[in-house]
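Morning run. Coffee first, then this:
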Amino acid sequence: VKKDEGNVKRTVLKSVVGTLDLSIRYLLQGENFPGERVNPPLFGCINRRGPNRYGYIANLCVAKSARRQGIASNMLYFAVESAKSNGKINQASVNKKHENFLLI
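And here it is:
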């Protein structure tokens, strides 16, 4: 468990009840955020540092027996905090299924 915020309590379970994929990616030329296109400048350069990096979270799943206990929310929190501290990102994108309204 990493940094706790004041009076927020985070529980660590002794078994695996969920998983997710986290990757640090780079924005494409002309993107401000994944999939959001803007008019690119006439000339540009590829910059692999700073604001061109973002965290991408996908495939978040929690066992049926462990759902509705805040586990997915905690997993998202830790994934974003990890990406911020280790990946030096300022933005994160979460991929979710259209029919899964309880994810976020």
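The two ends are 22 Å apart (CA to CA). Good start to the day.
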